[in-house]
Structure formats: C-alpha cells, structure tokens
Write a structure and sequence with these properties.
- There is one protein chain.
- The protein is mainly alpha-helical.
- The chain has 19 helices and four strands.
- The chain has helices at about 15-20, 25, 30-45, 55-70, 85-95, 110-145, 165-190, 210-215, 225-230, 235-260, 285-310, 325-345, 355-360, 365-375, 380-400, 405-410, 420-425, 425-430, 440-460, and strands spanning about 150-155, 160-165, 265-270, 350.
- Strands 1-2 form a two-stranded antiparallel sheet. Strands 3-4 form a two-stranded antiparallel ribbon.
- Helix 6 (about 110-145) runs antiparallel to helix 19 and helix 10 packs antiparallel against helix 11.
Length: about 475
C-alpha cells in the first residue's frame, strides 16, 4: 500500500480502513491534471531557488515518462496506491530517486487535490459549453427553416394560440443560451488557483503563487489559504447549472415524446435514435428522449449530495470532501452525453408540418383572434368572448374549425361577422400580425433569428483564448 504518510504511525492501517479511505478508484481521472499541477509547481520552485534547475529538469523528465507510460498502457494505475497523488509521487521516486521526494516541497495534498479538481472542472465547464453551442446551432437551423411552419401553442397542455415552429424552438434557444451564460459565469468565478495554500495556512517557503496561477491559466491565486483548500462552491455552482440544463433537456424531451405519439404525430424520430419493442412489431419508441428525461434525477442527486456533504463541514479541509468526486464525475459525464445524443436526435428529426397546421386549426387556436375581430367592430370584449365560446362549442359538436364555417353559420352567433373574418382568423394572419418583440410574427422572428446568428458568431467559446 503506497502512502505519502506514515512516520507518525507505529501500526499499519487496517486493510478495510485503507480500502474505505482510498480514492484511487475514481480520482485517477485527475491524473493529467495532477501532472499539470506538478509541472507548474516544480517550475515555480526552481524559479524561486527552492530547487535547482537540474532538479527541476529531472523531475519534469520523470513526470513526462510516467505520463507516456500510462498513456501507452505500460504503467497501470492500480489500487496499490491510495490516490492519484501517491501514484505519481511513488513512481517518480522509483524513477529518479531522492530528487523525486522534493516535488512535494511547499505543497500539501489538500491544495494539490483542490487544484486538480478545479482544473478538471474548468475543463468540463468548457466542454459543456461546447455541447450547448452545438445544440444552439441545431435549434437555430430549425428556426431558420420553419418560420412559416404553423403549429399550436399550448398552455395547460391545451391548444391555446397558433405560433410558428420557429417561435416554439426559439424558447429553447433562450433557455440553452442562458445555460451558456451560466457556464461563462462559473468559469470566471472559479478561475483562481488554490495551489500554494498548503494544508490550510500557506507555507514558509517563498512561493510565487502568481507565477503558478499564470502557468496554469488562472486569473490569479485564491485570496485565502483556508478557503483555497476547502472551497467547493465552484463545483456546486457547476452541478446546479448542470441540473438546470437537464431540466431544460427534460422539458424538451417531454415535448418530443408527446409530439412523437400517435395522438400528436408532429414529428418522426430518425430510426438511428429510436428503438423497437421485443413483442410489439409496430412500436417505434423515443428512448433517447425518455432516457434524457430519466437521467435528470440522477444529476439532481449529485447536486443534493454535494450540498448535503458540505453543509456541516468546519474549516478547513476534511475527509468528507473526498465525496465531491464520484457523483460529480457521473453528473458531468451524464450531461455531456445527454447534450450530445439529444442534439443528434433533434438534428435528424422530421417535422410533420401539415399535421401541425391542422392541429392548430382543429384546436380552435384562432378563437382569440375571432374575439378580437368582434372587438374591433364595436363588440365589448366580454360579449365577444362569450360569442366565440359558443362558436367553439358548435365547432366541437360539428367537428369543424372556425375558418371552415360558412358566413351563414357564423351569423347565427353574431351579425357583425363579414367576409373579411376569414382573412382575420387564418393561421398565417394569427401568427404574422403578432410582431411585438419576442412574438411569433414573421418580422419579429426575422429579428430574433438575426440576433441569434450574431450571438452564435460573436459569443466567446470558453477556453479558446487559453
């Protein structure tokens, strides 16, 4: 059992205790971050005269060799080691001797793991931002192609007013755009380097924390050494943002599932993103959308787990904080996979435009516009509301949308109706005359799509400037 401590102990650790305490099974994912941090640290030690340049170079060569051998499968990260830090250091000492023991000068595992996790999380924030951007590109493409595609808008899952498919998709564009803004906020707030905080109280060595921070692409060092080793706010923020992303994906998935049903028939999901039934030959199931919806709870669980772990921990580092990794890693993997697969499904989906338009017509979504027509011809709104309600009831009984009723039929309810009622309540008129900012009208949507295009062109892609 390779450990970085033991001098104070006279008795070996119980094997069950060792296994319970060890983190190598999951923190080996921080291997490259650990090497990156160690390289920056040893360069700083040499710059400050704490190590010689020769010692620095020996350590760097040793670290490079460990990385190469692990990547080529010649060196395995096994449970022989307590954690990824002890794996790196033990192998370094085996390769270059006592000089390897100097790597840990002025550093604690507390600030080392805090750095590794921050580097790893920063990289994943940037990756999630990339997946979000790809999804926004897909949504924008659908919007541009469907400004004239009429569909019912819903409230309470009841058909309400006609909108365009572009407008409906635009709502999700706004959601995922906000998700990207959260990624940028998190990255900016977390981008400070904890290395040099030591165990909790810094160190007497003359470290140059600004050099280390710059070497690792941070905006500067953390301001307080106790906070540096015990802060997991950035990870909680990220898990919170991931939970919101999953909430958005789950809402979107729910609509895809509904739209794919026999009752709606608004979409056809590509065969590559569907599955069948082992017993019912006719089935084509929206499994990707259902799994995305189901995995949302898994991500919520990671957030609640870390919040609960952190809520009672006194300063500074405590072993409880080792529990920040497994569920966080799972949540990160889950969200990125869901974004990737959902985007693949959405980009290959077929929208049944005629079915959508007919659904809007037969759902009496132009009833509000019919009432507005009466109001514009002098009928008080409350009376107009009642008249059109009666027309809708008649249409339900006769299985006839309002715009299919003859003028004679409409006159049964009000003599105010004239031939121009059919233009006033056509699906196209109902949508295109709504042109206030954010509305589904063609002019408003053209402005919205143009703004989206500018956003996609100019919004910074996280991490590219590093």
């Amino acid at each position: 059992m390779a450990q970085l401590w033991g001098g104070r102990f006279q008795k070996a650790t119980d094997e069950k205790v060792y296994a319970f305490n060890a983190s190598i099974g999951f923190d080996q994912r921080l291997f490259h971050e650990d090497l990156r941090g160690s390289r920056a640290h040893v360069k700083m030690l040499a710059k400050q005269g704490i190590l010689t340049e020769e010692e620095r170079d020996q350590i760097l060569v040793g670290l490079d060799g460990i990385e190469k051998d692990v990547e080529e499968g010649k060196l395995l990260i096994t449970s022989q080691y307590e954690d990824v830090h002890s794996f790196v250091e033990a192998n370094l000492i085996d390769r270059i001797g006592d000089v390897g023991k100097k790597l840990h000068t002025g550093r604690s595992r507390n600030d080392q793991v805090a750095l590794d996790m921050r580097l790893f999380t920063r990289s994943r924030v940037e990756g999630t931002d990339g997946y979000l951007r790809e999804l926004l590109i897909t949504i924008q493409k659908i919007m541009k192609e469907n400004t004239d595609t009429i569909m019912p808008g819903f409230t309470h899952l009841q058909k309400a007013q006609p909108v365009s498919l572009a407008h409906h998709m635009g709502a999700y564009f706004e959601m995922f755009k906000r998700d990207r803004l959260r990624m940028a906020d998190i990255r900016e707030r977390m981008n400070y380097c904890p290395l040099g905080s030591g165990a909790l109280a810094g160190t007497t060595y003359p470290l140059d924390r600004n050099f280390t921070a710059e070497e690792l692409g941070f905006d500067g060092p953390t301001a307080n050494s106790m906070d540096g080793v015990s802060d997991r706010d950035y990870l909680i923020e990220y898990l919170s943002a991931l939970s919101i992303i999953m909430m958005h994906l789950s809402r979107f998935s729910e609509e895809v599932i509904l739209w794919n049903s026999n009752e709606y028939q608004f979409v056809e999901i590509d065969d590559a993103f569907s599955t069948g039934s082992s017993i019912m030959p006719q089935k084509k199931n929206p499994d990707i959308a259902e799994l995305v919806r189901g995995k949302t709870g898994r991500v919520y669980g990671a957030l609640m787990s870390l919040l609960t772990t952190m809520k009672g921990i006194p300063l500074a580092y405590n072993k409880d904080m080792q529990e920040d990794k497994e569920m966080s890693f799972d949540a990160m993997d889950t969200v990125d996979q869901c974004l990737d697969l959902f985007n693949g499904m959405l980009s290959t989906i077929t929208f049944k435009k005629d079915r959508m338009r007919d659904s809007a017509r037969h759902g009496f979504t132009n009833a509000t516009d019919a009432a507005d027509y009466l109001v514009k011809h002098g009928v008080p709104f409350r009376d107009a509301h009642g008249i059109v309600g009666q027309i809708v009831l008649y249409g339900i009984e006769e299985h006839k949308p309002i715009d299919d009723m003859s003028l004679e039929e409409l006159h049964r309810f009000s003599p105010v109706f004239e031939e121009d009622i059919y233009t006033a309540i056509s699906m196209e008129t109902c949508v295109d005359t709504r042109n206030t900012v954010g509305a589904p009208g063609r002019e408003a949507m053209a402005d919205e799509i143009e703004k989206n295009e500018l956003y996609l062109m100019h919004a910074p892609v996280l991490g590219q400037s590093m």
